Amino acid sequence: MKPSSLLTPDAQLDLRGTPCPINFVRTKLRLEKMPLGGLLEVWLDPGEPIEQVPDSLTMAGYQVEQITDCSSYFSLLVRRPLAGQ
């Protein structure tokens, strides 16, 4: 099993400057277009976006695999679950 630092996203979404809840909605729409098990990297602003979006995604059934503080923004790795999960 490879370390989490080597997770390679299948797609990337830059939502810096996007307010809540629009950033959650855009993330969810992008994940719905991805294949089952696909990994999406999302860039979010500090504050409300990084506090709200990961919890909202988890409650919606997505798997947040990693959150990285990149100084001026956060990188969130979220996976679309496989069918039946």
TrEMBL record:
Short name of one Pfam family:
TusA
What are the residue boundaries of the UPF0033 domain, all occurrences included? 12-80
InterPro entries hit by this protein = TusA-like, TusA-like_sf
Q: Which residues form a coiled coil?
A: none
Concerning its family, UniProt says: Belongs to the sulfur carrier protein TusA family.
This one is known as Sulfurtransferase TusA family protein
Q: Which organism does this record belong to?
A: Nostoc favosum CHAB5714
